[in-house]
Design a protein that fits this description.
The structure is a homodimer. By secondary structure, the first copy, chain A, is α+β, with helices and mostly antiparallel strands. Chain A has 17 helices and 18 strands. The first copy, chain A, has 4 domains: 88 residues, Uridine Diphospho-n-acetylenolpyruvylglucosamine Reductase, domain 2, CATH 3.30.43.10; 120 residues, Uridine Diphospho-n-acetylenolpyruvylglucosamine Reductase, domain 3, CATH 3.30.465; 112 residues, Alpha-Beta Plaits, CATH 3.30.70.2190; 110 residues, Alpha-Beta Plaits, CATH 3.30.70. In chain A, α9 packs across α11, α10 crosses α13 and α14 packs antiparallel against α15. The longest helix of chain A has 20 residues. The first copy, chain A, starts with a helix and ends in a 16-residue tail after the last helix. At the A-B interface, β9, α8, β11, α9 and α11 of A face β9, α8, β11, α9 and α11 of B.
Chain lengths: 459, 459
């Protein structure tokens, strides 16, 4: 594939040196850390304004050129691969924070603002934005994949925290999906339709997000268990009794092993929970008391606690470093990152069967996750270049998804469908998929928006 | 308009005596408490199962017969009026509660289950469902209008609390929008697309809802203020400081007057806040302390408190009775109920201008609302049969919406667009409306689902 000459000329005119067909830059924009082969676009543009996005969309639409929106490139299902070539819209230069509305607890940002950048900017306001996928993703990208992270059990996912979007449609219209009011019953919920649509319906050019007051007290804790059953049972009981945990994260013994090795830590190599409590001093005391009772009754040991910011960071280091540590520890492997989410009543069974399955394959596949939501990840490691092992990883992955779906769960809790889980979407939602296809056809009739993602080719 | 003979025959065959063209029953199903002229359907059916809904949809679709889904008929924007005749699907007999999943904090119900019925059913489980629009609506209806109520400031609206839906599409497909996992990134968020679509995209036949543990301590309070500014300022400060109020409701002096008169109470006829605190005993103590300080500093007086269930109910009686009291008090009037929602930073200004505007018209138009969300209602009363007054009410309503939208608010916080606010939707969301229209055309190409609601006629 190559770019139509008139499109190239039009983009050149709009962007000057912010339009490129450089092989290196295209290759970079077609590469992620997924297990898929990279797929570079034919060109990359770096818009700075909504108007530039609109003009570029029109230039592409005129020749049916595919458009791939791109934030930080941290998604995990090949979401940014240019399967049919075309132009990648790298939105990282749209990184302005327009307005923090302190009274309304919201903020209006361009899509290229990263989550860490936002929270640094907010620091002096006493407010924060809680959604934290592993990587320092852009907020536009996070909206696109309906991302969540460690705080979702308390604060929800991007679905609950995007108040409004500005989107450039495939025909170059600029659409605002909602006003800034906290709630509305005005027509179809287009905000939620674009959240999680992975760039297949339009280009997000502005995001309005909910903010929260930084809690008076934040307490972190780590607790190891003899068995993963004890850890998971603690999660279930803590959630059910209504302790409003801010975070409750599970790392299995393999993950801890990788972290110990890479970060030179000496954590007990056991199933471990990382917790965080938010609230007033009194409220946190109460939460801790209840949670500790439950964990102790389920064989929880080696409690460690931290309240000061630096101590909390140190305590949570293992959790923060987990994915990178696994990558670094499993040298010489190709990693297949995936996630599923099941109703919490099925979580223990799903994890038990998955652990057994992993053991049977002989693969190194550490597990970690946001277990308060019933969501967990596997990092399946297959020897580089070993096709047999890669097939084993594929089969293990396949069985994991089937298992989660058979337990009324989903094939992806937070990574999205991308190019990797299209067939599983059919399995998971059946008759709903043709409805999604109708929506796609209605909103992007020429199929120029990130084609080949979420849904099978339309024709 | 009248029903095609083959449709009547097909429906008769499916429903026997649960199919009717009785004038009385049709009239009843085309009448609500909105200010619009009633619009009866040509027939009413009373399905009991999803399969019956599917068969009936197919029978209607075969002749392009309009379908109006109907729950309890408590919506306020003419949402259930059969503008183009056709068949009303009265879903009130689909009132089964299928399964309470206590570990997962969710419940699966038929759409005709009412909110009070659900909470009665849940009583022994220690769980509850918090969304409470004024009327005892059905859960299918509440999903359809994206309803909220007094608890939304803490627990969210139907948008946040519907986990999954089963929907019969206009072509008679049965679609499940999501699995029962707490979160998912699997494809377009069809759940949120159907929530708030007011029956214009399909018939909801099953609803999976989130549940919550009944808090250890519930404390209710009432507090009167010399000025509405004091009341609203208290709301703003309490929300900003992060007190996790379960409810914070505003009733103006006219509303209190109506309640005093009808319910023989003797509340101070002043701007009043009704509050509720949920949590552990300690947490509630802390919340109350902070809230009381803020309210006192803003001229809050006449505090009343209640913790026991019956006392709380008595204390909140004025709030619960408010809408009915206004109707009863303003005898001989036609009432125009409306709601808007603005960012909370604009709430004081919006209320001040609206109060001034009401005074200038000379109309009786009590105000009450879920001010923690920036959402308030007016019950505009115009003398029955007085066209001049009705025009004044219309103009007042018009200015209210314009004011809210100009303040980055919405034309409806929780009632929906129905037939009443179609023109305002255009004003509020502009370029987003054609997108909604595309979605409608894609999912209901023959425009048989509740035609004439939310969007202008398609052709």
């Amino acid at each position: 594939m190559s770019l139509a000459q008139e499109t190239a000329a039009a983009l050149q005119k709009i962007f000057n040196d912010r339009f490129t067909t450089s092989r290196g830059i295209c290759a970079e924009h077609g590469t992620d850390i997924s297990h898929f082969e990279p797929q570079p676009p034919d060109a990359v543009v770096f818009p700075e304004t909504t108007e530039e996005v609109r003009a570029a969309v029109k230039a592409c639409a005129a020749t049916g050129t595919p458009i791939v929106p791109y934030g930080a490139g941290t998604s995990l299902e090949g979401n940014i691969h240019a399967l049919k070539g075309g132009v990648t819209f790298d939105l990282s230069r749209m990184d302005k924070i327009f307005s923090v509305n302190q009274e309304d607890l919201d903020v209006v940002v361009q899509p290229g603002v990263r989550r860490v950048q936002l929270n640094e900017y907010l620091r002096d306001t006493g407010l924060f934005f809680p959604i934290d996928p592993g990587a320092d993703a852009t907020l536009g990208g996070m909206a696109s994949t309906r991302a969540s992270g460690t705080n979702a059990v308390r604060y929800g996912t991007m679905k609950e925290n995007v108040l409004s979007l500005e989107v450039v449609t495939p025909s170059g219209e600029i659409v605002r999906t909602s006003r800034r009011a906290r709630k509305s019953s005005a027509g179809y919920d287009l905000t939620r339709l674009y959240v999680g649509s992975e760039g297949t319906l339009g280009v997000i050019t502005e995001v309005t997000l909910k903010l929260y007051g930084i809690p008076e007290t934040i307490l972190s804790a780590v607790c190891a268990f003899d068995t993963f059953e004890g850890a998971i049972q603690s999660v279930i009981e803590t959630i059910q009794i209504g302790v409003p945990l801010a975070r409750i994260e599970f790392l299995d013994e393999d993950t801890i092993k990788a972290v110990n090795h890479v970060s030179k830590l000496s954590l007990a190599e056991k199933p471990t929970l990382f917790l965080e409590f938010h609230g007033t001093a009194h409220a946190v005391d109460e939460q801790v008391k209840t949670a500790k009772e439950i964990m102790t009754a389920n064989s929880g040991k080696n409690f460690q606690w931290a309240e000061k910011a630096e101590e909390r960071t140190a305590l949570w280091q293992a959790r923060h470093d987990a994915a990178l540590s696994i990558s670094a520890y499993a040298t010489g492997t190709r990693q297949w990152w995936t996630d599923v989410c099941v109703p919490i009543s099925k979580l223990a069974a799903c994890i038990a069967e998955t652990k057994k399955d992993i053991r049977a394959t002989g693969l190194f596949a550490p597990m970690l996750g946001h277990v308060g939501d019933g969501n967990f990840h596997l990092g399946i490691c297959a020897k580089d270049g070993d096709e047999e092992e890669f097939k084993k990883a594929d089969a293990l992955h396949h069985r994991l998804i089937q298992r989660a779906v058979s337990m009324d769960g989903t094939s992806t809790g937070e990574h999205g469908i991308g190019r990797g889980k299209i067939e599983y979407l059919e399995e998971e939602l059946g008759a709903a998929v043709p409805i999604m296809r109708s929506v796609k056809r209605a909103l992007d009739p020429e199929n120029i928006m990130n084609p080949g993602k979420i849904l099978k080719p339309l024709q």
